[in-house]
Design goal:
98 residues, alpha+beta, 1 helix, 6 strands
């Protein structure tokens, strides 16, 4: 019986460790539509010490940056409006502090 209990505790510990590890990251994608200069990414958790990493999947035709970081959102902003023929897609990753 002691062995079963030890195995159960090890499985619980591993499950908690994996949950903690995997919940450190949130990811997704966002599209800035034609004519716009920003997109808001919402429904996430962002706090002090979190890292927001964004990668464009195409040519942005200029500078871009992250603004308006709040508890549940951030904004990807472009220097120039997106052309009608080429909406700009971004992949994003939010990492919680260690």
């Amino acid at each position: 019986m002691q062995t079963i209990w030890t195995v159960w505790n090890n499985v619980r510990y591993l499950a908690l460790a994996l949950d903690s590890y995997f919940n450190k990251f949130q990811s997704g994608s966002a599209t800035i539509p034609a004519g716009a200069v920003y997109v808001d990414v919402t429904g996430i958790t962002v706090g002090a010490g979190f890292k927001v990493i964004v990668t464009p999947r195409g040519n942005t035709d200029g500078h871009w940056w992250i603004t308006n970081i709040a508890a549940t959102s951030f904004r990807i902003t472009l220097a120039n409006a997106v052309t009608p023929s080429a909406p700009t897609d971004f992949d994003w990753l939010v990492k919680a502090p260690n």
